[in-house]
Amino acid sequence: EVQLVESGGGLVQPGGSLKLSCVASGFIFSRSWMLWVRQAPGKGLKWVSQINSDGAITEYADSVKGRFTISRDNAKNTEYLQLNSLKPEATAVYYCLGGVGGAYVWGQGTQVTVSS
């Protein structure tokens, strides 16, 4: 079964940090581009970041550039998103996606809440 499982979300104060993880199974992770998207309360989905199969290419939305870092460990079939200097507007459900066979597989999402 193709599956992505996120973890690492939670409640953090403004200016704080979190590290999200996404563990993949059921497909060849090391050949897949991986992405993070987020959905804020009452809003649509927004692309956050993506990374190519070997980790050499990373891209970020302007709103998170310089504060978020995407990475991957192909030996562990795991993708990460380090969130630093968090702002309240980062409050959202964060989803990881993986490119598999011409389609995207989604994880179940992990909630990030930035509040004092």
Architecture overview:
By secondary structure, the protein is mainly beta. The protein is 0% helix and 53% strand. The chain has strands spanning 3-7, 10-12, 18-25, 34-39, 45-51, 58-60, 68-73, 78-83, 92-100, 103-106, 110-114. Strands 2, 4, 5, 6, 9, 10 and 11 form a 7-stranded mixed sheet that branches. A 4-stranded antiparallel sheet has the order 1-3-8-7, with no helix packed on it. A hairpin with a 6-residue loop joins β5 and β6. The N and C termini lie far apart (40 Å).
Summed up:
This protein is mainly β. It has strands at 3-7, 10-12, 18-25, 34-39, 45-51, 58-60, 68-73, 78-83, 92-100, 103-106, 110-114.
Q: How much strand?
A: over 45%
Tally the beta strands.
11
Label the structural class.
mainly beta
* Biggest sheet descriptor: 7 strands, mixed
Helix content, binned percent:
under 10%
Separate helix tally: 0
Low-confidence stretches: none
Features:
mainly beta, 0% helix, 7-stranded mixed sheet
